[in-house]
Amino acid sequence: MCTSSQIIGSLLVLSVLEIGLGLSSVAVGAVTFVRVRTGKNAPPQLGDSSPVWSGACFLICGVCGIFCAKKKSGLIMILFSACCICGLIGGILNIQFLRALTKRSSLHLASLSLACIGISGCTISTWLTCRLASYEQRRMFLEREHSLHHSHEMTEKVNEHNKHFSD
Question: Does the record bear Cytoplasm in its keywords (predicted)?
Answer without folding.
Answer: yes
